[in-house]
Amino acid sequence: MPTHITIAQNILAANETLARANQDLFEKHGIYAINFMSSPGAGKTTLLDATLSALVDRIKIGVIEGDIATTVDADRLARHNIPIVQVNTEPFGGDCHLEARMVGSALQSLPLGEIKLLLIENIGNLVCPAEFNLGEHLKAALLSVTEGEDKPLKYPLMFREADILIVTKIDLLPHLKLSIEKLRGNVRQINPKIEIFEVSAESGKGMDEWIHFLLHCAQDGIRPERHMHENVGAKGHTHPHQH
């Protein structure tokens, strides 16, 4: 077997061990964790900002912000006065994704006993973040309508691994040639079971349904069935939410 393949397998195996340790912490403290993944500029931070505004008085939330460098996004969300930890990968070699070890390190700086919902904003990239399990309960892929309907076909791993797709910036649809029906069809061609939310954090359209879904997940501790075999450390999570 070629050496580079063996090394990659060893890296992923080590990551899985650390992801299970993160899982154990989540289970111990009753935390529901979501991993938000997308290309740069898809609207992750804007969606998190609107989500925090809607939920900050309803459930205890924490955030892990991932970026190669800067604290721009963490600074933006700081106005919500919730626990936030910035993870920059520049000291780790400038990785284009978060890994379980980075999340595990961030967890040491969070008041875990005071958090019920943990939102993890991964680094903007449509490839690498999908390869690394962080110990999360839910993988959420974001895709803005400005990116085109063909992205799921060009980057299948991201959409195959995701439990849900959040289509963002739908307030811009009247100004684009994008076919939302074709986008849905392309996503489901890759992942027939994926749940799709269509939202605009700016106008608020679709946000009520998204917030209801989050509260349901966090309160009931739902873990999608199709990832349970990968998350060996999971306890007590049975049926996925049906959208």
Account of the protein in words:
This protein has 243 residues and is an alpha/beta fold. The chain has a single domain (3-227), classed as Rossmann fold, CATH 3.40.50.300. 36% of the residues lie in helices and 16% in strands. The chain is built from 8 helices and 7 strands, in the order αβαβαβαββααβαβα. The chain has a 7-stranded parallel sheet, with helices on both faces. Strand 6, helix 7 (180-190) and strand 7 (195-198) form a beta-alpha-beta unit. The chain is globular. The relative contact order is 0.17. Mean pLDDT is 89; it is low at 226-243.
Features:
243 residues, alpha/beta, globular
Strand order of the largest sheet: 3-2-4-1-5-6-7
The percent range for strand residues is: 15-25%
Structural class: alpha/beta
- Count of separate DSSP helical elements: 8
